[in-house]
């Protein structure tokens, strides 16, 4: 055989072997991930012949399937779809899936491995294949209050409410939001127009601000700084600076209090006074005194930086960022520089303090039930770790009670506000307004973020813009629990 022909033959044979090996790998190991991928439009066509399970919360149907033309099912979102859109996501032949519709696709279609026993039983008994149902931890009244508080004011932001003792998400609202019904409507041209509008909007309504976007937390992060100080032996009476500004260590850069005001008349004040007045200079000094290691460890113990993979929604990890020196530490201690949190993470911080220092794993799904509504699986509370001792949690609660009263709030709430500068020209930007808090009489903690000053621009503060929202949500949750 001619050498050139032999070389081509051998090369062709190798290519055939590679092709066969690749096809075998795909068939053996990637069938499930490709064929059952919720972004696979062919999978949608097959799934549309099966009645997909419901998504419910508090007895209300949030998503369900109805039989349409050609014996195909289509998705409906019958209850306040805009209020729940960021959590539910959507299920579209054309645009794929997002939110819980995506992450829980296997459960909702009945194809998840955890449903194997019920699938076999249905086959043996000749029952029509149907998807399983998902019940959420969300409380409709609390969710509605959270959403309306943001939407009625035209705010871009988020509210997350958590039950501290269990980690159940009671509310998760994000605005601007979207109506998934518009994306899945029968009129394909109208659906395309709606999706284009949502996806190209400057307000990014398809983004879940509760979990998918981090922002500087401002003074709400002083809860972490204070926890670290208490761990090192400081207490509410520890003396700290009340100066209106200080020079950052090793630099000529100054850091000042909000509005350039002194703290309690200047001079030296107690940590209690500095916390209730949220004095930047005091916490910058306190953090440098106690060091980088305890600051970073405390943040990590509260879950900052952890991946949250079991929520059922994509979650952007929060971060403390690089802290190369004491100047960076002083800035980080007041929730600026590279510190960035999701509202979910900030709600978890408040919830951990409320729960005596024990951090619970957050979850959105409470139960999975079959087509016959019989419970198949109940999601139990899961401890994620202990951030601080109960004694330190009690000390923090005491300080946060004072801060709430100083902000003319409620005597049955403990809180911390935050006003976070951001952007390249941070001094002249409209700040993000934050509020984290928990009830002293009920089992609820909350984080509120109103981006870019809400409707008051540069004059915005966490106390004036975000706090009223948080109190309304807490009150709704406490009333729900009574």
Automatic annotation (TrEMBL):
Penicillin-binding protein transpeptidase domain: residues covered: 157-474
Gene Ontology CC entries for this record: plasma membrane
Gene3D superfamilies in the record: DD-peptidase/beta-lactamase superfamily, Penicillin-binding protein 2a (Domain 2)
Pfam families: PBP_dimer_2, Transpeptidase
Molecular function per GO: penicillin binding; peptidoglycan L,D-transpeptidase activity
Signal peptide: none
Domain (Penicillin binding protein A dimerisation) ranges: 52-134
Domain of life of the native organism: Bacteria
One BP annotation, GO: cell wall organization
Protein name, entry field: Penicillin-binding protein 2
UniProt source species: Corynebacterium anserum
């Amino acid at each position: 055989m001619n050498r050139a022909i032999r070389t081509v033959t051998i090369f062709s044979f190798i290519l055939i072997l590679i092709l066969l090996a690749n096809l075998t790998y795909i068939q053996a190991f990637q069938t499930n991930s490709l064929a059952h991928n919720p972004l696979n439009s062919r999978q949608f066509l097959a799934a549309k012949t099966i009645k997909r399970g419901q998504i419910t919360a508090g007895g209300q149907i949030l998503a369900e399937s109805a039989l349409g033309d050609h014996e195909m099912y289509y998705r409906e979102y019958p209850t306040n779809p805009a209020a729940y859109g960021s959590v539910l996501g959507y299920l579209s032949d054309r645009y794929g899936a997002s939110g819980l519709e995506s992450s829980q696709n296997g459960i909702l279609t009945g194809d998840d491995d955890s449903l194997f026993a019920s699938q076999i039983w249905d086959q043996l008994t000749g029952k029509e294949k149907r998807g399983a149902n998902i019940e959420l931890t969300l409380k409709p009244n609390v969710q509605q209050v959270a959403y309306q508080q943001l939407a009625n004011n035209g705010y871009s932001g988020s509210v997350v409410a958590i039950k501290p003792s269990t980690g159940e998400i009671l509310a998760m609202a994000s605005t601007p939001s979207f109506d998934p019904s518009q994306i899945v409507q029968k009129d394909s041209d109208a659906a395309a127009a709606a999706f284009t509008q949502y996806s190209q909007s400057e307000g990014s309504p398809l983004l879940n601000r509760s979990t998918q976007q981090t922002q500087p937390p401002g003074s709400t992060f002083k809860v972490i700084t204070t926890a670290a100080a208490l761990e090192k032996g400081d207490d509410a009476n520890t003396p700290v600076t009340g100066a209106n500004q200080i020079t950052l260590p090793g630099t000529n850069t100054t850091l000042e209090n909000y509005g350039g005001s002194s703290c309690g008349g200047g001079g030296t004040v107690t940590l209690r006074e500095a916390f209730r007045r949220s004095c930047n200079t005091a916490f910058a000094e306190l953090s440098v005194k106690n060091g980088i290691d305890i600051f970073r460890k405390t943040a990590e113990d509260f879950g900052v930086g952890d991946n949250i993979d079991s929520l059922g929604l994509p979650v952007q990890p929060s971060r403390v960022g690089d802290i190369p020196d004491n100047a960076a530490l002083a800035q980080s201690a007041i929730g600026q520089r590279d510190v960035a949190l999701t509202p979910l993470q900030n709600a978890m911080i408040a919830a951990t303090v409320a729960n005596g220092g024990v951090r619970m794993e957050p979850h959105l799904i409470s139960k999975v039930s079959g087509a016959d509504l019989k419970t198949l699986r109940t999601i139990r509370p899961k401890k994620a770790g202990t951030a601080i001792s109960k004694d330190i949690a009690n000390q923090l609660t005491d300080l946060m009670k004072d801060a709430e009263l100083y902000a003319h709030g409620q005597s049955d709430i403990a809180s911390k506000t935050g006003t976070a500068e951001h952007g390249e020209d941070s001094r002249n930007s409209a700040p993000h307004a934050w509020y984290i808090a928990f009830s002293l009489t009920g089992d609820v903690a909350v984080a509120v973020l109103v981006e870019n000053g809400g409707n008051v621009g540069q004059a915005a503060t966490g106390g004036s813009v975000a706090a009223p929202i948080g109190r309304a949500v807490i009150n709704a949750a406490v009333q729900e629990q009574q």
